[in-house]
TrEMBL record, chain A:
<keyword id="KW-1003">Cell membrane</keyword>
<feature type="transmembrane region" description="Helical">
    <location>
        <begin position="92"/>
        <end position="108"/>
    </location>
</feature>
<keyword id="KW-0472">Membrane</keyword>
<keyword id="KW-0812">Transmembrane</keyword>
<feature type="transmembrane region" description="Helical">
    <location>
        <begin position="279"/>
        <end position="311"/>
    </location>
</feature>
<feature type="transmembrane region" description="Helical">
    <location>
        <begin position="53"/>
        <end position="80"/>
    </location>
</feature>
<feature type="transmembrane region" description="Helical">
    <location>
        <begin position="323"/>
        <end position="343"/>
    </location>
</feature>
<keyword id="KW-1133">Transmembrane helix</keyword>
<dbReference type="Pfam" id="PF02653">
    <property type="entry name" value="BPD_transp_2"/>
</dbReference>
Automatic annotation (TrEMBL), chain B:
<keyword id="KW-0813">Transport</keyword>
<dbReference type="InterPro" id="IPR003439">
    <property type="entry name" value="ABC_transporter-like_ATP-bd"/>
</dbReference>
<keyword id="KW-0067">ATP-binding</keyword>
<dbReference type="InterPro" id="IPR003593">
    <property type="entry name" value="AAA+_ATPase"/>
</dbReference>
<dbReference type="Pfam" id="PF00005">
    <property type="entry name" value="ABC_tran"/>
</dbReference>
<dbReference type="GO" id="GO:0005524">
    <property type="term" value="F:ATP binding"/>
</dbReference>
<dbReference type="InterPro" id="IPR050107">
    <property type="entry name" value="ABC_carbohydrate_import_ATPase"/>
</dbReference>
<feature type="domain" description="ABC transporter">
    <location>
        <begin position="263"/>
        <end position="504"/>
    </location>
</feature>
<dbReference type="InterPro" id="IPR027417">
    <property type="entry name" value="P-loop_NTPase"/>
</dbReference>
Length: 355, 505
C-alpha cells in the first residue's frame, strides 16, 4: 500500500524546480493537441520560438503582453500571501482602466507631467476601491471573498458596458461602444521607437521590486506573512489581522487597477469592453507559477506572455487554432498545482502491519 | 467477574516522539461488563482506545479477542477495518456523521457496498428498529442528522456501531456533551445492552457516573495503568488519589510575601455556547511574587479564561485590571502593552507562525519597538542578534535561527515562547497548560522559569489540568468547574480532586 505523508521541510531545490518543471511539461504537452491538429510539431515549436525571440519587434510584443500580467500577477501574489483570495483582478483592472479614461480623455487638460501621474494614481485608487468592498464584507461579516470578488467581476464588466453606452461613450466613435481616446499628453511613453512596449512595463518592474523588498524587509511584510501563514498566532501576538487584510486588499486592488491603466493609457488609448482577454484570471496562474514571490511573478509573466505571443504567431503561420496558448497556460497551472503537492508531500510505501 | 473474557489488551505501548503515551498497559474486558477508564487529560486513555480501534499502531504489545467458545484470536493491529470486523465499535467525542443524510442512512453508511445498485432499506430499517427496541436507544430515523440534538446524534453513533454487530463498544467521554438527564438515560440503555451480552468501555472524568454505572474501574496516569478495582469495592477518595498521583513536588518553592495585585478580574462573564467557552462571574486576583494555580478538568472554561486574559475574547460583563488600571478595550495588543506575557495552550496553533523563522517568531510581539524596526523597515541585524542571544540563554535547539519555527521540537517551540515572554519582564505571566506534551526535563525547565519570574516580582496565573504541577508551583489554588471559579484552601489532593468533579468538597 502507498501512503501520502507530508515532507517535514520541502527541499529548496524542489520548491524552485517545481514551477520550472511544470512550465516545461505544460509546454511539452502542447505537442498532443498540435499533433491532433495535424501540424508538424518541430516546425510548430520553431514558429512559437520565432514568434517571441525571432525579432526585436516580436520580443517587444511579448513584453507588452507581459506588462498587465505582471500587475495582475502581483495583485494575486500579495493577496494570496495573506490568504486573501482575490479572484477579482479582472474587475479591478477594468475599474482602473475606466478611471484612466474618465480623467485622461479630456476631463482635465493638463501637461503630461501632471496628467500622467494623475491617471496612474486615480487608476490605482479605483482598483483599490473595487477590492475594498469584498475586503470589508469579509472582515465585517465573514463573507467569502472568493465569491464576492469573482461575482463583482461580472458586475463591474456590465457597469463598464453601461458607461460605454452612456457617459463615457465617444461622440466621435461612430456609435461603437468605446470611450473617447486619452489625450496625447496623458499617454504613457513608449520605450522603443515604433514599438508598442510602453512605460507601464517599467512601472510593473518597479512595483515587483518594491513588493519583493517590502515583503521580506518591512514590518508591513512581516505582518502580512504572519497573517497569511497563521492568522490565529498573528492575532495572539497582537497583530491586527483585519487591518492587515484590508491593507493588503487595497494594495492588491491597486495593482490590478494599474494593469488597466497600462492597457488603456499605454497601449490602446481608449476603453472598450473587451480590453482584457482575461488578464485578471491569468494573473492568478502567474502568481501560482511564481510561488507567490514578486520576483517570480515577473519571470512567470514573461513565460506566460511568451506562450501567448508565440502561440499566436505560430497559429498564424501554421493555421492551427491559437487556443493552444490557453491550453498551455491552463496546463501549466495544473502542473504547478500537482507539482506543488509533490513538493510538500511524498509517497511512502507503507510498512505492512505485523499480524 | 465470572463472565467469560471477550477482550484482552496485552502490554500495549505507544510513544509519540519523546512522550510515552502508553507504557505496557494491559486490560481485560468480560462479556456484559461495563469498564470505566479513568484518568486525567493526557493520561493516555484515548491513545489506548485508538490502538484498540486500529487508528494507532502500537509500538509493542498485542490485542486478543475471544470467541464464544473462549478461544483467543489475535486482532490485526493498525487496521480499523479489522477492528470493525471483529465487532469493536467506537463512538468518539467528536461525532463522525454526515449532517445532510438521515439518521438511517448514516447508520447504514459504510456497512453496505459502495457500488451496490439497490439498497434494501426495509431490511436495514427493520434491523435498526429491533436494535432500538432492545436497547431503548431511540432516534428519529428519517430526519437529517443536521437537525438532531447532540444527544440524538450520539445515539445515532451508538446505533451505527450496534448495527454493525458490535460486541464491544468504546465510548470516549460520552456524557461530556449530554445534559444530566440524557446521561442517565444513556446509562440505562447501556445497562439494557450489557444484559444482552454487549461489553462496554467508557472513558470518563466524572467520578459520580463512574461509581454509579460501571462494574469495574481502571485508572491510567502518565500512560501507566496505576489501578484497577471492582466498582463495588471502590471509594471516590481512593480513585481521586490514584488519578492525580502522589508524587512529591520536584521544584522547591521558597516562601514569599505576595506584593501588590498585578491582575484583577472582577465578575467577568463570558456567555458561550458550551461549558468549554463559558465563564460565570469569575473574580480573581493575582499578586506580585505569587503563583495562582487554576485546577480543573479539561473543558470547564479554562480556554475561555485564558482567552479573556490574553485579550482574544472580550468579556460580555465584568472588568479586567492590570496593576490597578482597568483595560478599556481588551485585545491581544492591549494585553501585551499592559505587560502580560502569554504562554498559549496550543503552542503550534497560537504560539508560533510555523512557516516563519525562529528569529521572526521571537520578535513577533515587539514589531512596534524602535529597536526592532526603523521607519517601518525591519532591523534584521537586531532581530538576528536578539534570536542568537535568546536561543543561547533559553537553550532553544534546532536547525538555526533562520529555520522555520515548525521544524523545532515541541519542547524547543515552548522554549522559544518562554524566551519571547520572559525577556519582556512581564508583570503577569499567563501560563495555560505550559507543560502539556513536554518531557520531564522540558517540563521542569518551564516550572523553574515560572518560579524565577515569581521571585523577580511577576505574578503568575497557571492554568493546568495536571494537579501535581499546580500543587508544586502554586501559592494559592482555585478550581474551575463549569465556568465557575472557587478558591480551595486545602492542599489535599482528594479534596481538590472532588472539587474538580463539581462535588462539594
Amino acid at each position: 500500500m502507498i501512503r501520502i505523508e507530508p515532507r517535514p521541510a520541502p527541499p529548496r531545490l524542489l520548491t524552485l524546480g517545481v514551477p520550472v518543471l511544470a512550465a516545461l511539461i505544460a509546454l511539452a504537452l502542447a505537442a498532443l493537441p498540435l499533433a491532433f491538429a495535424g501540424a508538424d510539431i518541430a516546425t510548430a515549436y520553431g514558429e512559437m520560438f520565432k514568434g517571441v525571440f525571432g525579432s526585436l519587434f516580436a520580443f517587444s510584443e511579448m513584453l507588452t503582453r507581459a506588462t498587465p500580467l505582471i500587475f495582475t500577477g502581483l495583485a494575486a501574489a500579495l493577496a494570496f500571501r495573506a490568504r486573501l483570495w482575490n479572484i477579482g483582478a479582472e474587475g479591478q483592472l477594468y475599474l482602473g482602466a475606466m478611471a484612466a479614461v474618465a480623467i485622461g480623455a479630456g476631463a482635465i487638460d493638463a501637461p503630461a507631467i501632471i496628467l500622467i501621474p494623475l491617471i496612474v494614481i486615480l487608476g490605482a485608487a479605483a482598483g483599490a476601491a473595487g477590492m475594498a468592498v469584498p475586503a470589508l464584507l469579509k472582515t465585517r461579516f465573514g463573507a467569502d471573498e472568493v465569491v464576492t470578488t469573482l461575482l463583482l467581476n461580472f458586475v463591474i464588466l456590465i457597469f463598464v458596458q453601461m458607461m460605454l453606452e452612456g457617459p463615457l461613450k465617444d461622440p466621435m466613435g461612430l456609435g461603437w461602444p468605446q470611450s473617447s481616446p486619452i489625450l496625447d499628453q496623458g499617454m504613457l511613453p513608449t520605450l522603443i521607437d515604433r514599438m508598442r512596449v510602453h512605460a507601464g512595463l517599467i512601472l510593473a518592474l518597479i512595483a515587483a521590486g518594491i513588493a519583493q523588498f517590502m515583503l521580506a524587509r518591512s514590518v508591513w511584510g512581516f505582518r502580512l506573512r504572519a497573517v497569511g501563514e497563521n492568522a490565529a498566532a498573528a492575532c495572539h501576538a497582537g497583530i491586527r489581522v483585519n487591518r492587515t487584510l484590508i491593507g493588503v486588499a487595497l494594495i492588491s486592488g491597486a495593482l490590478a487597477g494599474l494593469a488597466g491603466v497600462g492597457e488603456v493609457a499605454g497601449l490602446k488609448g481608449y476603453l472598450t469592453a473587451d480590453l482584457s482577454p482575461g488578464f485578471g484570471y491569468t494573473g492568478i496562474v502567474v502568481a501560482m507559477l511564481a510561488g507567490l514571490s514578486p520576483v517570480g511573478v515577473v519571470i512567470a509573466a514573461l513565460f506566460i506572455a511568451s506562450v501567448f505571443v508565440g502561440a499566436d504567431s505560430m497559429s498564424r503561420a501554421m493555421g492551427v487554432s491559437s487556443y493552444l496558448a490557453d491550453l498551455v497556460v491552463s496546463m501549466s497551472l495544473l502542473c504547478v498545482l500537482i507539482g506543488g503537492f509533490f513538493a510538500r508531500y511524498r509517497l511512502v510505501r507503507a510498512a505492512k502491519a505485523p499480524a | 467477574m465470572t463472565a467469560p473474557l471477550v477482550l484482552s489488551l496485552k502490554a500495549l505501548s505507544k510513544r509519540f516522539g519523546s512522550v510515552i503515551a502508553n507504557d505496557a498497559v494491559s486490560l481485560d474486558l468480560h462479556r456484559g461488563e461495563v469498564l470505566a477508564l479513568l484518568g486525567e487529560n493526557g493520561a493516555g486513555k484515548t491513545t489506548l482506545m485508538n490502538m484498540l480501534f486500529g487508528h494507532y499502531m502500537p509500538d509493542s504489545g498485542g490485542i486478543d479477542l475471544y470467541d464464544a467458545a473462549g478461544n483467543a484470536h489475535p486482532l490485526t493491529l493498525g487496521h480499523p477495518q479489522a477492528a470493525l470486523a471483529a465487532g469493536i465499535g467506537m463512538v468518539h467525542q467528536h461525532f463522525a456523521l454526515a449532517e445532510n443524510l438521515t439518521a438511517l442512512d448514516n447508520i447504514a453508511l459504510g456497512s453496505e457496498p459502495l457500488l451496490s445498485l439497490r439498497r434494501d432499506r426495509a431490511r436495514t430499517r427493520a434491523k435498526v428498529e429491533s436494535i432500538m427496541q432492545r436497547s431503548g436507544l431511540t432516534a428519529p430515523l428519517d430526519t437529517p442528522v443536521g437537525r438532531l440534538s447532540v444527544g440524538e446524534r450520539q445515539r445515532v453513533e451508538i446505533l451505527k456501531a450496534l448495527y454493525r454487530d458490535a460486541r464491544i463498544l468504546v465510548l470516549d467521554e460520552p456524557t461530556a456533551v449530554l445534559t444530566p438527564q440524557e446521561a442517565d438515560s444513556l446509562f440505562h440503555s447501556i445497562g439494557a445492552m450489557t444484559r444482552d451480552g454487549l461489553s462496554v468501555i467508557f472513558i470518563s472524568h466524572k467520578l459520580r457516573e463512574v461509581l454509579a454505572f460501571s462494574h469495574r474501574i481502571a485508572v491510567l496516569r502518565h500512560g501507566v495503568k496505576v489501578g484497577e478495582m471492582a466498582t463495588a469495592e471502590a471509594d471516590d477518595r481512593a480513585i481521586a488519589r490514584m488519578m492525580v498521583g502522589a508524587d512529591t513536588p520536584t521544584t522547591p518553592r521558597e516562601p514569599m510575601q505576595p506584593g501588590a495585585p498585578v491582575l484583577h478580574l472582577d465578575k467577568v462573564t463570558l456567555t458561550g455556547t458550551s461549558a468549554r467557552d463559558r465563564l460565570q462571574d469569575v473574580t480573581l486576583t493575582v499578586h506580585a511574587h505569587e503563583v495562582l494555580g487554576i485546577a480543573g478538568v479539561s473543558g470547564n472554561g479554562q480556554s475561555a479564561l485564558a482567552g479573556v486574559i490574553s485579550g482574544l475574547r472580550a468579556p460580555d460583563r465584568g472588568t479586567i485590571s492590570v496593576a490597578g488600571t482597568p483595560i478599556a478595550h481588551p485585545d491581544p495588543r492591549a494585553m501585551i502593552r499592559a505587560g502580560i506575557g502569554r504562554i498559549p495552550e496550543d503552542r503550534h496553533h497560537d504560539g508560533i507562525v510555523g512557516a516563519m523563522s525562529v528569529a521572526e517568531n521571537m520578535v513577533i510581539e515587539r514589531l512596534d519597538e524602535p529597536g526592532i524596526q526603523t521607519n517601518g523597515l525591519l532591523n534584521r541585524e537586531a532581530i538576528a542578534e536578539n534570536a542568537r542571544t535568546l536561543s543561547k540563554s533559553y537553550d532553544v535547539r534546532g536547525p538555526g535561527i533562520d529555520a522555520a519555527a515548525r521544524l523545532l521540537s515541541g519542547g524547543n517551540i515552548q522554549k522559544l515562547i518562554l524566551a519571547r515572554v520572559f525577556e519582556q519582564d512581564p508583570n503577569l505571566i499567563l501560563a495555560n497548560q505550559p507543560t502539556r506534551g513536554l518531557d520531564m526535563g522540558a517540563a521542569a525547565e518551564v516550572g523553574r522559569r515560572l518560579l524565577e519570574a515569581r521571585k523577580r516580582g511577576a505574578g503568575v496565573l497557571l492554568i493546568s489540568e495536571d494537579l501535581d504541577e499546580i500543587l508544586s508551583l502554586a501559592d494559592r489554588i482555585m478550581v474551575i468547574h463549569d465556568g465557575h471559579l472557587t478558591e480551595v484552601t486545602t492542599r489535599d489532593r482528594e479534596q481538590i480532586g472532588l472539587a474538580m468533579t463539581g462535588e462539594p468538597a
